[in-house]
């Protein structure tokens, strides 16, 4: 199996920063009460942070069994967090269009 952990760690940390920017901009503009956007961005922040943690554990693991397990967990968490970001982008787009 090809190691995906370094790529997951890189992408998760970048998208974690993107999610933080979404939350910060919502708080600055005081538009977080009108949509559920901040909830989706907050969930994605937590999931991206956990994905970073498990991908790091996968990289540092000595056991191939744990390495594979941690990488799989990081991969699934990344996918769920990416789905939350997609929902956030859809909400932003529909808010701008309306």
From TrEMBL:
Transmembrane segments: 7-28, 40-61, 73-97
Protein name: Uncharacterized protein
Organism ancestry: Bacteria, Pseudomonadati, Bacteroidota, Flavobacteriia, Flavobacteriales
Superkingdom classification of source: Bacteria
Keywords, alphabetical: Membrane, Transmembrane, Transmembrane helix
Keyword Transmembrane helix carried by entry: yes
């Amino acid at each position: 199996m090809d190691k995906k952990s370094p790529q997951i760690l890189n992408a998760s940390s970048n998208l974690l920063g993107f999610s933080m920017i979404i939350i910060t901009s919502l708080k600055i503009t005081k538009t977080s009460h009108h949509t559920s956007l901040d909830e989706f961005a907050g969930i994605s922040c937590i999931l991206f942070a956990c994905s970073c943690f498990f991908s790091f554990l996968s990289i540092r693991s000595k056991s191939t069994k744990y390495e594979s397990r941690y990488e799989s967990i990081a991969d699934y968490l990344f996918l769920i967090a990416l789905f939350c970001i997609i929902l956030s982008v859809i909400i932003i787009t529909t808010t701008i269009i309306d």
